[in-house]
């Protein structure tokens, strides 16, 4: 049996209620590159992508241990200036109604 896939789901507010400004989106793409590198260096999982709209951006990363994954990402997440922001660590599969989630304000 394989271990359940955990997740780190990060949400940042954008400057407007739609897709933010172009410079914000460029900063997000740069952040994504740094997150991919950090996650890979820690062998903690993988960065899966983003969803932009409705005045926020959501970033998605997955791996076998949400704590380890967040530890690899945390320095970059905290350094990113957009606020308000938070991360949700999910300890289990997305379709598992018993999966524990922990919210961390950034």
Provide structural commentary.
It is built from 2 helices and 5 strands. The protein has 106 residues and is of the alpha+beta class. It has one domain (6-105): Ribosomal protein S10 (Alpha-Beta Plaits, 2-Layer Sandwich), CATH 3.30.70. Strand 4 (85-91) and strand 5 form a beta hairpin. Helix 1 (22-41) runs antiparallel to helix 2 (66-79). The longest helix is centred in the N-terminal third of the chain and has 20 residues, at 22-41. The N and C termini lie far apart (34 Å).
Q: Secondary-structure blueprint of this entry?
A:
Blueprint lengths: L5 E8 L8 H20 L4 E8 L2 E8 L2 H14 L5 E7 L8 E6 L1
Briefly say what this structure is:
32% of the residues lie in helices and 35% in strands. The protein is an alpha+beta fold and 106 residues long. It has a single domain, classed as Alpha-Beta Plaits (2-Layer Sandwich), CATH 3.30.70.600.
> What is the CATH homologous superfamily assignment?
Ribosomal protein S10
As for the CATH topology, it is Alpha-Beta Plaits
Number of domains: 1
Give a quick account of the main beta sheet: strands, pairing sense, barrel closure.
5 strands, antiparallel
CATH class value: Alpha Beta
Number of helices: 2
What is the 3D form? globular
Q: State Rg.
A: 14 Å
Mean pLDDT: 94
Distance between the termini: 34 Å
Q: Which architecture name does CATH use?
A: 2-Layer Sandwich
Which parts are unreliable, with pLDDT below 50 for 5 consecutive residues or more?
none
**Count of extended strands:** 5
Protein name: Muconolactone delta-isomerase
Organism: Micromonospora vinacea
